[in-house]
Design a protein that fits this description.
By secondary structure, the protein is of the alpha/beta class. It has 12 helices and 20 strands. Strands 8, 9, 10, 12, 15, 18 and 20 form a 7-stranded mixed beta sheet that branches. A 6-stranded mixed beta sheet has the order 17-14-13-16-11-19, with no helix packed on it. Helix 6 links the parallel strand 4 and strand 5. It is globular, with a radius of gyration of 21 Å.
Length: 394
Protein backbone atom coordinates (compact mmCIF):
# COMPACT_ATOMS: atom_id res chain seq x y z
CA UNK A 1 0.00 0.00 0.00
CA UNK A 2 1.32 3.42 -1.00
CA UNK A 3 -0.18 6.55 0.53
CA UNK A 4 0.62 10.09 -0.59
CA UNK A 5 1.28 11.77 2.74
CA UNK A 6 1.25 15.40 3.89
CA UNK A 7 2.79 16.23 7.26
CA UNK A 8 2.20 19.26 9.48
CA UNK A 9 3.79 19.57 12.89
CA UNK A 10 6.52 20.94 15.11
CA UNK A 11 10.17 20.31 15.88
CA UNK A 12 9.77 16.67 16.93
CA UNK A 13 8.70 16.01 13.34
CA UNK A 14 11.48 18.22 11.92
CA UNK A 15 14.19 16.65 14.08
CA UNK A 16 16.73 14.45 12.28
CA UNK A 17 17.33 11.80 13.34
CA UNK A 18 13.99 11.58 15.09
CA UNK A 19 10.83 9.53 15.23
CA UNK A 20 9.74 10.29 11.64
CA UNK A 21 12.50 8.52 9.65
CA UNK A 22 12.15 5.54 11.97
CA UNK A 23 8.36 5.56 11.50
CA UNK A 24 8.65 5.69 7.71
CA UNK A 25 11.05 2.74 7.60
CA UNK A 26 8.99 0.73 10.12
CA UNK A 27 5.77 1.29 8.18
CA UNK A 28 7.51 0.32 4.95
CA UNK A 29 8.63 -2.98 6.47
CA UNK A 30 5.00 -3.58 7.45
CA UNK A 31 3.80 -3.06 3.89
CA UNK A 32 2.67 0.57 4.02
CA UNK A 33 4.71 3.10 2.07
CA UNK A 34 4.09 6.59 3.45
CA UNK A 35 5.16 8.59 0.41
CA UNK A 36 5.80 12.06 1.87
CA UNK A 37 4.81 14.46 -0.90
CA UNK A 38 4.85 17.52 1.37
CA UNK A 39 6.58 17.87 4.73
CA UNK A 40 5.20 21.18 6.00
CA UNK A 41 6.39 20.81 9.60
CA UNK A 42 8.18 23.79 11.15
CA UNK A 43 9.72 23.80 14.62
CA UNK A 44 8.13 25.85 17.38
CA UNK A 45 4.73 26.17 15.70
CA UNK A 46 1.18 25.30 16.74
CA UNK A 47 -2.07 24.22 15.12
CA UNK A 48 -2.58 27.82 13.98
CA UNK A 49 0.44 27.43 11.71
CA UNK A 50 -0.76 24.01 10.59
CA UNK A 51 -4.06 25.50 9.43
CA UNK A 52 -2.18 28.27 7.64
CA UNK A 53 0.10 25.73 5.92
CA UNK A 54 -2.87 23.73 4.64
CA UNK A 55 -4.58 26.90 3.42
CA UNK A 56 -1.63 27.80 1.19
CA UNK A 57 -0.95 24.19 0.07
CA UNK A 58 -2.93 23.53 -3.11
CA UNK A 59 -2.53 19.76 -3.57
CA UNK A 60 -4.39 18.34 -0.58
CA UNK A 61 -7.12 16.97 -2.84
CA UNK A 62 -4.58 14.60 -4.43
CA UNK A 63 -3.27 13.14 -1.16
CA UNK A 64 -4.21 10.06 0.85
CA UNK A 65 -3.03 10.78 4.40
CA UNK A 66 -2.52 13.84 6.59
CA UNK A 67 -0.28 13.48 9.65
CA UNK A 68 -0.63 16.13 12.39
CA UNK A 69 1.79 16.65 15.30
CA UNK A 70 1.15 19.77 17.37
CA UNK A 71 -0.13 18.55 20.75
CA UNK A 72 3.07 19.27 22.65
CA UNK A 73 3.46 22.81 21.29
CA UNK A 74 -0.26 23.53 21.60
CA UNK A 75 -0.20 22.54 25.28
CA UNK A 76 2.85 24.76 25.85
CA UNK A 77 1.22 27.82 24.26
CA UNK A 78 -2.47 27.44 25.16
CA UNK A 79 -2.37 25.60 28.48
CA UNK A 80 -5.57 24.84 30.40
CA UNK A 81 -7.30 28.24 30.60
CA UNK A 82 -10.88 27.84 29.33
CA UNK A 83 -10.99 30.74 26.88
CA UNK A 84 -7.61 29.93 25.36
CA UNK A 85 -8.49 26.24 25.14
CA UNK A 86 -11.67 26.90 23.18
CA UNK A 87 -9.77 29.20 20.83
CA UNK A 88 -7.21 26.40 20.28
CA UNK A 89 -10.04 23.92 19.59
CA UNK A 90 -11.31 26.19 16.81
CA UNK A 91 -7.90 25.89 15.15
CA UNK A 92 -7.69 22.12 15.53
CA UNK A 93 -11.27 21.50 14.43
CA UNK A 94 -10.59 23.92 11.59
CA UNK A 95 -7.70 21.76 10.38
CA UNK A 96 -9.84 18.63 10.39
CA UNK A 97 -12.89 20.19 8.72
CA UNK A 98 -10.91 22.11 6.11
CA UNK A 99 -8.90 19.01 5.17
CA UNK A 100 -12.02 16.84 4.85
CA UNK A 101 -13.89 19.52 2.91
CA UNK A 102 -10.98 19.74 0.49
CA UNK A 103 -10.63 15.94 0.25
CA UNK A 104 -13.41 13.72 1.68
CA UNK A 105 -11.27 10.63 0.94
CA UNK A 106 -8.37 11.87 3.03
CA UNK A 107 -7.30 9.85 6.04
CA UNK A 108 -6.15 11.96 8.98
CA UNK A 109 -3.95 10.83 11.86
CA UNK A 110 -2.95 13.02 14.79
CA UNK A 111 0.07 12.14 16.93
CA UNK A 112 -0.09 13.21 20.58
CA UNK A 113 3.29 13.83 22.21
CA UNK A 114 3.96 15.17 25.69
CA UNK A 115 6.76 17.30 27.10
CA UNK A 116 9.19 16.29 29.80
CA UNK A 117 7.38 16.64 33.15
CA UNK A 118 4.17 17.30 31.19
CA UNK A 119 0.76 17.27 32.83
CA UNK A 120 0.00 13.85 31.30
CA UNK A 121 2.26 12.28 33.95
CA UNK A 122 -0.22 12.98 36.74
CA UNK A 123 -3.45 14.47 35.36
CA UNK A 124 -5.84 14.53 32.41
CA UNK A 125 -4.18 16.86 29.85
CA UNK A 126 -6.63 19.32 28.29
CA UNK A 127 -5.14 19.55 24.78
CA UNK A 128 -4.69 15.77 24.54
CA UNK A 129 -8.28 15.20 25.66
CA UNK A 130 -9.51 17.79 23.17
CA UNK A 131 -7.64 16.10 20.32
CA UNK A 132 -9.10 12.73 21.27
CA UNK A 133 -12.63 14.18 21.44
CA UNK A 134 -12.46 16.02 18.12
CA UNK A 135 -10.79 13.04 16.41
CA UNK A 136 -13.55 10.69 17.58
CA UNK A 137 -16.20 13.20 16.50
CA UNK A 138 -14.88 13.21 12.93
CA UNK A 139 -13.82 9.57 12.84
CA UNK A 140 -10.13 10.33 12.32
CA UNK A 141 -7.15 8.48 13.78
CA UNK A 142 -5.65 9.65 17.07
CA UNK A 143 -2.39 8.06 18.20
CA UNK A 144 -2.04 9.11 21.83
CA UNK A 145 1.65 8.38 22.33
CA UNK A 146 1.78 9.94 25.80
CA UNK A 147 -1.01 7.68 27.06
CA UNK A 148 0.53 4.55 25.50
CA UNK A 149 3.96 5.34 26.95
CA UNK A 150 2.45 5.67 30.41
CA UNK A 151 0.43 2.47 30.09
CA UNK A 152 3.23 0.34 28.65
CA UNK A 153 6.36 1.74 30.29
CA UNK A 154 5.07 3.43 33.43
CA UNK A 155 5.60 6.80 35.06
CA UNK A 156 9.12 6.05 36.30
CA UNK A 157 10.44 5.32 32.81
CA UNK A 158 8.59 8.08 30.94
CA UNK A 159 9.34 10.61 33.67
CA UNK A 160 13.04 9.76 33.82
CA UNK A 161 15.33 12.56 32.55
CA UNK A 162 17.05 10.18 30.11
CA UNK A 163 13.81 9.64 28.15
CA UNK A 164 14.01 13.20 26.81
CA UNK A 165 16.91 15.11 25.26
CA UNK A 166 15.44 18.39 26.52
CA UNK A 167 12.09 19.79 27.66
CA UNK A 168 10.28 19.12 24.39
CA UNK A 169 12.07 16.35 22.48
CA UNK A 170 12.41 12.60 22.94
CA UNK A 171 15.95 11.30 23.36
CA UNK A 172 17.63 9.84 20.31
CA UNK A 173 17.85 7.07 19.25
CA UNK A 174 16.17 4.91 21.92
CA UNK A 175 13.11 6.95 22.90
CA UNK A 176 12.43 8.12 19.34
CA UNK A 177 12.54 4.51 18.13
CA UNK A 178 10.14 3.42 20.89
CA UNK A 179 7.79 6.25 19.90
CA UNK A 180 7.98 5.33 16.21
CA UNK A 181 7.12 1.70 16.96
CA UNK A 182 4.15 2.70 19.13
CA UNK A 183 2.83 4.91 16.33
CA UNK A 184 3.28 2.12 13.79
CA UNK A 185 1.41 -0.31 16.04
CA UNK A 186 -1.61 2.01 15.89
CA UNK A 187 -1.30 3.27 12.32
CA UNK A 188 -0.80 -0.08 10.61
CA UNK A 189 -4.19 -1.64 11.48
CA UNK A 190 -5.97 1.69 11.14
CA UNK A 191 -4.66 2.25 7.61
CA UNK A 192 -5.24 -1.34 6.54
CA UNK A 193 -8.93 -1.08 7.40
CA UNK A 194 -11.16 -0.28 4.40
CA UNK A 195 -11.65 3.47 4.22
CA UNK A 196 -15.24 4.56 3.66
CA UNK A 197 -15.56 8.33 3.51
CA UNK A 198 -18.45 9.46 5.67
CA UNK A 199 -20.60 12.54 5.46
CA UNK A 200 -18.89 15.43 7.20
CA UNK A 201 -20.20 15.72 10.75
CA UNK A 202 -21.85 18.95 11.95
CA UNK A 203 -19.30 21.15 13.69
CA UNK A 204 -18.64 20.93 17.40
CA UNK A 205 -18.00 24.67 17.61
CA UNK A 206 -19.94 26.67 15.01
CA UNK A 207 -17.18 29.30 15.20
CA UNK A 208 -14.43 26.88 14.09
CA UNK A 209 -11.70 28.26 11.83
CA UNK A 210 -12.09 25.96 8.82
CA UNK A 211 -13.24 28.95 6.79
CA UNK A 212 -10.32 31.15 7.82
CA UNK A 213 -8.45 32.83 4.97
CA UNK A 214 -4.73 32.98 4.37
CA UNK A 215 -2.48 35.25 2.35
CA UNK A 216 1.13 34.15 1.90
CA UNK A 217 4.15 36.36 1.25
CA UNK A 218 3.80 36.23 -2.53
CA UNK A 219 0.11 37.15 -2.38
CA UNK A 220 0.82 39.99 0.05
CA UNK A 221 3.55 41.27 -2.23
CA UNK A 222 1.22 41.37 -5.22
CA UNK A 223 -1.53 43.06 -3.23
CA UNK A 224 0.79 45.65 -1.72
CA UNK A 225 3.11 46.33 -4.64
CA UNK A 226 6.31 44.90 -3.22
CA UNK A 227 8.46 42.06 -4.39
CA UNK A 228 9.06 39.54 -1.64
CA UNK A 229 12.33 38.61 -0.01
CA UNK A 230 13.13 34.91 -0.26
CA UNK A 231 14.70 33.06 2.65
CA UNK A 232 15.97 29.54 2.01
CA UNK A 233 17.89 26.73 3.63
CA UNK A 234 18.36 23.06 2.89
CA UNK A 235 14.85 22.28 4.10
CA UNK A 236 12.64 24.87 2.41
CA UNK A 237 12.24 28.34 0.95
CA UNK A 238 9.79 30.98 2.12
CA UNK A 239 8.83 34.28 0.53
CA UNK A 240 8.14 37.24 2.81
CA UNK A 241 7.06 40.85 2.41
CA UNK A 242 9.61 42.99 4.26
CA UNK A 243 7.68 45.76 5.95
CA UNK A 244 10.93 47.49 7.01
CA UNK A 245 9.98 50.79 8.74
CA UNK A 246 6.50 50.98 7.20
CA UNK A 247 3.15 49.91 8.68
CA UNK A 248 0.52 47.45 7.53
CA UNK A 249 -3.08 48.64 7.76
CA UNK A 250 -5.56 45.79 8.24
CA UNK A 251 -9.34 46.01 8.47
CA UNK A 252 -11.86 43.16 8.49
CA UNK A 253 -15.62 42.84 9.06
CA UNK A 254 -17.07 40.07 11.25
CA UNK A 255 -13.73 38.50 11.93
CA UNK A 256 -10.29 38.57 13.55
CA UNK A 257 -6.67 38.71 12.60
CA UNK A 258 -5.68 35.30 13.92
CA UNK A 259 -1.97 35.05 13.30
CA UNK A 260 1.01 36.41 11.39
CA UNK A 261 3.68 34.14 9.92
CA UNK A 262 7.07 35.82 9.78
CA UNK A 263 10.78 35.18 9.37
CA UNK A 264 12.80 35.88 12.49
CA UNK A 265 16.18 37.23 11.41
CA UNK A 266 18.79 39.23 13.38
CA UNK A 267 17.45 42.65 12.32
CA UNK A 268 13.87 41.98 13.36
CA UNK A 269 12.25 44.56 15.68
CA UNK A 270 9.38 43.92 18.08
CA UNK A 271 5.95 44.23 16.50
CA UNK A 272 3.73 47.16 17.52
CA UNK A 273 0.01 46.69 16.96
CA UNK A 274 -2.31 49.67 17.34
CA UNK A 275 -5.94 48.73 17.86
CA UNK A 276 -8.21 51.63 18.72
CA UNK A 277 -6.55 53.67 21.46
CA UNK A 278 -4.33 50.79 22.62
CA UNK A 279 -0.80 49.92 21.54
CA UNK A 280 0.38 46.35 22.04
CA UNK A 281 3.97 45.26 21.54
CA UNK A 282 4.92 41.65 20.81
CA UNK A 283 8.45 40.29 21.02
CA UNK A 284 9.36 38.52 17.76
CA UNK A 285 12.99 37.62 18.45
CA UNK A 286 14.00 33.97 19.01
CA UNK A 287 16.95 33.06 21.20
CA UNK A 288 18.51 30.85 18.52
CA UNK A 289 18.64 33.77 16.10
CA UNK A 290 19.96 36.23 18.67
CA UNK A 291 22.71 33.79 19.65
CA UNK A 292 23.70 33.03 16.06
CA UNK A 293 22.64 29.37 16.09
CA UNK A 294 20.29 30.07 13.19
CA UNK A 295 20.56 32.69 10.45
CA UNK A 296 16.77 32.82 10.42
CA UNK A 297 13.75 30.93 11.72
CA UNK A 298 10.29 30.65 10.24
CA UNK A 299 7.85 31.60 13.00
CA UNK A 300 4.27 32.55 13.74
CA UNK A 301 2.76 35.06 16.13
CA UNK A 302 -0.78 34.27 17.28
CA UNK A 303 -2.86 37.28 18.29
CA UNK A 304 -4.91 35.91 21.18
CA UNK A 305 -3.28 38.47 23.47
CA UNK A 306 -4.89 41.35 21.55
CA UNK A 307 -8.48 40.45 22.34
CA UNK A 308 -8.57 39.70 26.07
CA UNK A 309 -12.05 38.81 27.31
CA UNK A 310 -13.47 39.35 23.80
CA UNK A 311 -11.30 36.57 22.31
CA UNK A 312 -14.26 34.27 21.59
CA UNK A 313 -16.64 37.02 20.48
CA UNK A 314 -17.19 37.93 16.85
CA UNK A 315 -16.79 41.69 16.40
CA UNK A 316 -18.65 43.57 13.63
CA UNK A 317 -15.42 45.29 12.57
CA UNK A 318 -11.73 45.27 13.38
CA UNK A 319 -9.12 47.85 12.37
CA UNK A 320 -5.47 47.81 13.34
CA UNK A 321 -2.00 48.73 12.13
CA UNK A 322 1.14 46.64 12.47
CA UNK A 323 4.73 47.84 12.28
CA UNK A 324 8.16 47.68 13.81
CA UNK A 325 8.38 48.94 17.37
CA UNK A 326 10.30 52.02 18.44
CA UNK A 327 11.89 52.56 21.83
CA UNK A 328 9.78 55.64 22.65
CA UNK A 329 6.30 54.21 22.07
CA UNK A 330 4.11 53.46 25.08
CA UNK A 331 2.67 49.96 24.91
CA UNK A 332 1.43 46.81 26.57
CA UNK A 333 4.19 44.23 26.24
CA UNK A 334 3.56 40.63 25.20
CA UNK A 335 6.46 38.16 25.17
CA UNK A 336 5.38 34.80 23.66
CA UNK A 337 6.68 31.78 25.52
CA UNK A 338 9.02 30.86 22.66
CA UNK A 339 10.36 34.42 22.14
CA UNK A 340 12.65 36.72 24.09
CA UNK A 341 12.43 40.40 24.91
CA UNK A 342 14.31 42.73 22.59
CA UNK A 343 17.24 44.39 24.36
CA UNK A 344 18.01 46.75 21.48
CA UNK A 345 16.18 48.13 18.44
CA UNK A 346 17.85 47.70 15.03
CA UNK A 347 18.70 50.94 13.22
CA UNK A 348 17.70 49.38 9.89
CA UNK A 349 14.96 46.90 10.80
CA UNK A 350 13.76 44.01 8.70
CA UNK A 351 10.19 42.85 9.34
CA UNK A 352 9.60 39.96 6.89
CA UNK A 353 5.92 38.92 6.96
CA UNK A 354 5.48 35.57 5.23
CA UNK A 355 1.72 35.33 5.66
CA UNK A 356 -1.41 36.25 7.60
CA UNK A 357 -4.34 34.13 8.77
CA UNK A 358 -7.69 35.77 9.47
CA UNK A 359 -11.44 35.29 9.58
CA UNK A 360 -14.22 37.49 8.22
CA UNK A 361 -14.34 39.75 5.17
CA UNK A 362 -11.14 41.61 4.38
CA UNK A 363 -11.82 45.30 3.72
CA UNK A 364 -8.39 46.93 3.87
CA UNK A 365 -4.87 45.56 3.60
CA UNK A 366 -2.50 48.36 2.62
CA UNK A 367 0.88 49.82 3.46
CA UNK A 368 1.29 53.12 5.25
CA UNK A 369 4.71 54.54 4.39
CA UNK A 370 6.97 55.52 7.25
CA UNK A 371 6.40 59.16 8.09
CA UNK A 372 3.17 59.30 6.12
CA UNK A 373 -0.25 59.81 7.66
CA UNK A 374 -2.06 58.72 4.51
CA UNK A 375 -3.55 55.25 4.60
CA UNK A 376 -2.74 52.86 1.82
CA UNK A 377 0.31 54.57 0.35
CA UNK A 378 1.73 51.77 -1.75
CA UNK A 379 5.42 51.06 -1.53
CA UNK A 380 7.61 51.16 -4.62
CA UNK A 381 8.37 47.66 -5.81
CA UNK A 382 11.90 46.55 -5.02
CA UNK A 383 14.03 43.84 -6.64
CA UNK A 384 13.62 40.41 -5.13
CA UNK A 385 16.29 39.44 -2.59
CA UNK A 386 17.32 35.91 -1.73
CA UNK A 387 18.87 35.04 1.64
CA UNK A 388 20.29 31.59 2.15
CA UNK A 389 21.20 29.78 5.34
CA UNK A 390 22.85 26.43 5.90
CA UNK A 391 21.08 25.68 9.17
CA UNK A 392 17.48 24.39 9.00
CA UNK A 393 14.66 26.08 10.85
CA UNK A 394 13.88 24.20 14.04
Amino acid sequence: MKLKTVIIGGSNTVMLPGYLPSLLSTMSRRGIDLDVVADLAVGGTTSAFGLYQLKIYDQLADCDLLLIEYALNDAFVYGDERRQFRHWARFYEGIIRFALERNPNLRIATLVFGARNGSFLSAVPSIDAGINYISQWYGTICVDVSRMLMQRLGRDVVGHPSFYSDQGHYARPVATTIVANLIADELEPALHRPHRPATLQPPIDPEHFANAKALDGVQLGKRLGRRPVEYSNRRFSVSALDLEKDRLRFEVDNGQLLAMAYVCEPRIPPLDIRMGQEMHRAALLKGGVRDGTYKFLVSMLSFEFLYGVTLLQQQPSLALTLGGGTSAAEHKLHVPKDSIKHDTFPAEPALPISGILFTGNLKVCTIEKAGSEANGTAAVAKPAVKIEAAAPSA
